[in-house]
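Structural prep section.
Before we set up the soaks we want a predicted structure of the protein with zinc ion in place, mainly to decide which crystallisation condition to try first. Input record follows.
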Amino acid sequence: MIRVIIPAHLRTLARVEGEVRVEVEGVATQRAVLDALEERYPMLRGTIRDHVTQKRRPFVRFFACERDLSHEAPDARLPDAVIAGTEPFLIVGAIAGG
Amino acid sequence: MATPNEPAAPMTLSNDEVLRYSRHLIMPEVGVEGQQRIKAARVLCVGTGGLGSPLALYLAAAGVGTLGLVDFDVVDYTNLQRQIIHTTGDVGRSKVQSAAEKIAAINPFVQVLRFEAKLTSANAMEIFREFDIIADGTDNFATRYLVNDACVLSGKPNVYASIFRFEGQASVFGAGSGPCYRCLYPEPPPPGSVPSCVEGGVLGVLPGLLGVIQATEVIKLILGAGDSLIGRLLLVDALAMRFREVKISRDPECPVCGANPTVKELIDYEQFCGVRSQESSGAVVQVPEIQPEELKRKLDGGADVFVLDVREPHEYQICNLGGHLIPLGELPQRVHELDRSREIVAHCKGGVRSAKAVAFLQGAGFEKVSSLAGGILAWADKVDSKMPKY
Ligand SMILES: [Zn+2]
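Run finished without errors. Recording the tokens verbatim:
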């Protein structure tokens, strides 16, 4: 079970509050987590990854355990603390309010 | 030490200033020398809104010698829930004038430089020249990229914060070996995809929290004290009251601060953020629109018009046109509730979401659909002055 935190406006879109939890089969990677997330919340397709290229969109970043995972390979194994569920996988989006 | 311009000769403090700043002077991290640095500092606050209010108030109280204020806006009633530098009596007045008065009342030793203008590619470099540190308290992506690029190009730190609903982000960009805003977010979201505070709302105290973090970082940069937020992004969740920090680093391929920059002068940021087409059409996408007066005439004349409200239920509670409520996010699943033989007018708060709804319905084969231009806010302005605005 992976804990995922998504940006506030995407929580509204997905109609969820707080953290999202997803189950991943096999090795827990960014791709596996995002696939599971989009499977469960189809309205998130295209908001985090590009519809076509499946690449992270440039106004979104991935973090966990205080580290920036945005440039990690999509099939790289996530940090142990994320896999263990002690730390969340953070999806952070640009906001501009002031 | 990140302060770019150290004062050549230390500014002396008068007896009145010594008394005023005594709680600073007795701390070894500040002391007389630190307070003189604060007095010599020149800080620009871009925006005097939610973030700019606490930022400017605290910097003034702390004794920043020269404070610049840039804003083109006037105070309105919806600002007062969070923009605490402005009062009810200031509604309708220039924000810069209003803020300058409060600063003078708090600390007459502060010199305020007023820029009653929109920060643009044409004036940013000239305005920034007057200052050592820039604090970004603006409210839109175009100005955020403009402030970032102007900071990088002029070599000045960008003390950054932004807010949405219950959440905030803060960092110090463009200083030392740290990243800039573009290193973090190379491109803005497409217009309309991330709601602004106007559309999505913001907790009134949140800009207080983040604006004070900005003020703290500004003072630390001036003093050269402590660990700055350079290379760190602070993520604030006020609902969970959780502060997380993540490390961020410079992108060697950043178009503005990277090894081979492609942005060497300020560009057209509205075009970069795709907002120009949005402004000209009044919506993100070009769809048929109906003016509030025309809708009113049709409804009064008994025309068979189906009003579709695509806002959220809590917005419907504030005010409504008696329309059928299907929030935009639910429209794809609930489209069967609509009769495609009838004329449908979709509306939201300001016209952005309803334009998306109309584009979606057109794609689903609806032919007689239009979006209420300017949303229920325009209805309140042009048709029903008793309608509450939010
Ligand atoms: Zn950069």
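Observations: Residues B 179-180, 182-183, 251, 254, 256-257 surround zinc ion (CB under 6 Å).
Flagged for discussion at group meeting.
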